[in-house]
Amino acid sequence: MTVLVTGATGLVGARLLPRLVEAGVDCRALIRGGKEAPAGVTAVEGDLLDPASLVQAVEGVSAIIHLAAVFRTPDTDLIWRSNLEGTRNVIAAAKAHASDARFIMASTGLVYNMDSPRPGREDDAADPKMAYPASKLAAENELRESGLKWSIQRFGFVYGDKDGHLESVPKLAINAKWHPAQKMSMIHHRDIANAMNLALTGAMDGRIVNIVDEAPTSIYELVELVGETMDPSSEPLANPWYIHIDGSLARSLGFQPIVRTVYQALQEKLM
User: Fold this and answer.
1) CATH code at 201?
2) Does residue 199 fall inside a structural domain?
3) Is residue 149 part of a domain?
4) 34-48, 171-185, 252-266: range with highest mean pLDDT
5) pLDDT of residue 34 exceeding 80
6) Fewest C-beta in 10 Å: which of 9, 145, 169, 211?
7) What pTM was computed for the model?
């Protein structure tokens, strides 16, 4: 099995690829000029926004793991071009040159509506307002309608392996004006690899699947966990289910998180 990974040098890709290699997967990485692929990975130079450069990347692959995305920037045009147009280009290349390949796309639990009446479920109606989740939802729809063999994984808040993401929570909480009691669903990099390996078997084909651990954790606890503080509050929580995601479908398909909670990650020094 030869697997192409886009976003290979990003937050998720840089940690997923070594685990796929360790699992015996023949990995190919789409890499921009000047960057290097991890050890044991074949690099193919290309760019999501350059369709011609994607032909060599997809030829002969049996699966594509599409991780590449832009999210933390005020440049909304770049977000839309990268996340939607870029995905369209990879889909088009796959249809033309790897039509039998399994196409697995990484997405986000942020697509769920802020006023959801329960933890977000895969079949809930979604109309995200921010550019990142809106562009990812649009890209999801492109893949679902592509005619390819597809699956989509909507991640909770990704953390671990010294990625620095959890340390950004205090600033995010201030900027987003999150209530300290807001609970957020999480997923460790180890379990993204766990979920991707499962998806490569076909267990998630034709499905959108939430990938989260077993214990949504409050913003207040997460801020304290990284050594910061935030003001406590007993005010009512306006949107109690926002960023809290239902993981039951994944469990029914055979996914079981190895890192069940952020506190397990802390105890086992997996942060």
Assistant:
1) 3.40.50.720
2) yes
3) yes
4) 252-266
5) no
6) 145
7) 0.97
